[in-house]
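User: structure tokens for this one?
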Amino acid sequence: MWKQLNKLWSKHPALMTGVGFSLLLLVLFLLAQQFEVKALTLEIQWIAISILPLVLALLAGGYVQSFKGFGVELEARLENTSVTSIEFSATVKESITTPTSVQKGGIDHLEQLRGQRIDRLAFIEGRSGYYDPVAVKEYLEKLTRLKYVEVQSSTREFRCLLPIKLFVESDSRPPDGMRQVKRDAIERFIQSLEEGNVLTEFAQSAITLTVLETESLVKALKTMRSHHAREAAVISSDRQCIGLLSAWKIEKRIADEVLRLSK
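Assistant:
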């Protein structure tokens, strides 16, 4: 028996994980009824919750094309729902307009940006001597709402997102309202931009996985599961990044659909 289970686990890890979690949740809900007879009449909502891991495993693993739950086609709803239909982290992008200096009018533009919700700053790979560390440092210091640095190719297509925490001290908020920026990290980043090796230099932190804005929730989740990723950049047909998608938001949407159909 154990050999058979090990064989199943090696061939279908996602499915077996879903089965295991579903069984565990179901047992916990039954125990919560204190072993009374009414456990046999466990409310349908709790049963629905207990099978959610199995549903996610079946859909993400591609084991079934449709899941008929409570008399309604769950999969049909999800396949016809694109990733942009759920609340993902849409980001507002800004490019450095005065890359070699924040003087000569650049400082005025930067001051105007401070009051806006700019959470993504774009840089282009392959430009030698284009970005000055002092200018970049000032942008990162004053744009305190920044969450990501985006790297684009020479043709302005999306390459990756880098978390802002790589370049600033954790939760630093001096009295003047500016962040404390890591100068060495900025210089390292600019050098990697010029040499075109950002993905190699920041391989451990870069978010490179992408899903199209028109992709269905199920397909997006399959893509993220197959790459063991919990986040993916949402891109348009011309490979422009429009936001960041988290796997847990897709899973929550699937869970909400199951619970809604169980009413």
